[in-house]
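Contributing: when you submit paired examples, paste them exactly as shown. First protein:
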Amino acid sequence: MFGYVVASWKELTKEQQDRYGAVYCGICRRIQAQSGSGARLGLSYDMAFLALLLMSLYEPEEASGKDACTLHPLKHRPWIDNQFVRYAADMNVVLAYYNCLDDWQDDGKRSAKKMARILEKSLPDIETRYPRQCGAIREGIAKLSELEKADCANPDEPAGVFGSLMAQILTYEEDMWAPDLMQLGDSLGRFIYLLDAALDYDKDKRKGKYNPYLAMGTGKDWPRWKEYLVLTIGRATAAFEKLPLVQDKALLDNILYSGIWMNYKRSGKEEGSTDD
């Protein structure tokens, strides 16, 4: 379920693009330092949102620089480093690990199995640093597996599980901001799950894989599915706007109000359709 919480690049200013890229490169550098070079192959721009959100909320001191790397040896790229970039790097590794396991178990991708083994080596250290978050991810993935095996016909159940998982990830620590971060994470997680299910409907039907909308047995219903998405992201942005964000607020707005809809728009499913 990677690739949904991203910026609409063309709508960013040059300054915002540079900032976004520097955070992304910073996460990549920290993944290499904390989990090894191979683990960078699981890097996702989604984690840049996590880092930017927490950086805007807590405003930590930042280190920065410009270097070449093994992935981009010919061009020096700017990077940013701080405690939230490092946190995002760890969460990226954990989520990428379970995503690879899912790809291996569902589709038999040998490359995913190989990648999971690379990522797995770092899990004990990350769990030591963030036991609450890692426990929530592990328990959430297990619960999702149970619901899928039971062919759960209520999309709100698995969406709620993924929402609870994301709520724990967005909540760096249990402080005064935790309730709003929890609500933001929960609603954003529900949105991601429901969008992923809608976009994968045809593929899952073709492959005979679990999909909550297939389990409902009602066929394609894009107008209804869009209502679900609008409702959940509305709850997410309501919680988001309660947070006292100044730094990078415009960039975060781009992601939450525009970027997250890009995959939906690319699908061409603005209008409803019936199942074949």
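Second protein:
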Amino acid sequence: MAANVQQIRGLLADVRKQLMKKTNVVATGIGYKITQGKKTGQLCIVCSVQEKRAKTRLTKKELIPAHIQGVATDVYPTGLIYAQADHKARFRPAPGGVSIGHTYITAGTLGCLVKKNGTVYILSNNHVLANTNEAEINDIILQPGLFDGGSSDKNHLARLSEYVPILFEGAKSSCFLGRGAAALLNALAFITCSKTRLLPIRKAAGENLVDAALAKPVKESDVKNEILEIGAVSGLAEAKLGMAIKKSGRTTGYTTGVIQQIDATVKVNYGENKNAVFSDQLVAGNMSQGGDSGSAVLNNKNNLVGLLFAGSNNSTIINRIQNVFKLLEISLP
């Protein structure tokens, strides 16, 4: 005869401490067993784990038995469980996943920390930190962003350092005349002791691969090398079809998803009849909303696989992280 809730409740009270001591277990409770992704009508003891590991990777002591005194068990991957945080609040030091933005935009998300030439920078989107190509280098970056109450006098976290320009449909491409004019104007500025310079942006190679930018913290102690509700970044990884992913963002907080497409070419609308086509993108399901732009996207091993920058009601568009790191010439701290 199948056990009922009351019987399992008594058993769980006896074995809970033992189960919670097992490596990777973050919660225990009573629920219905899930088989091949579908809920069954069988009551069981559910053990939630940070990540579901193959039995070959676990010792005998770490294994959760299939049955405890005749009651079935189930293992469910929840990830590390954090206290819920307000991603739109002011943070010092500021981790990834919180509200940030250029002084002229509403708000986006601080992705994560990166390093370039020995200096620590904040990584996010061009349209978050550089106001979609419209900003000037050294512009103030707020945390939280303007829409979340940030102000230049109280919430100045960083200054824009550089960005990869976004090429819009119908816009004139750069040419040798433009580059020559820029060099001449910068030379004149130097001769006249003017501090004004044309922007040191990363030239796109004829197509859009990333929506990315860097900001240098005013004080390195004001930023934190981890992501809210996720933790520290372990490394980089190549995104693959079917890969489970997660992100921490300003609007929807911690969410998970799956890579549904790779090698995608996507037309993205930036408003005001500005459209840009991006190549070599990743597509996931509905795991973001407006304001999550700039979020770092990781796999279940906390390896960085992408930079979230766009989406719709049912899809999320992500830059492949290898393109971001190559174009900005950055590495992990």
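If you have annotations for the second protein, write them as plain sentences, like these:
Residues 173-179 have pLDDT under 50 and may be disordered.
DSSP finds four helices and 20 strands in the chain.
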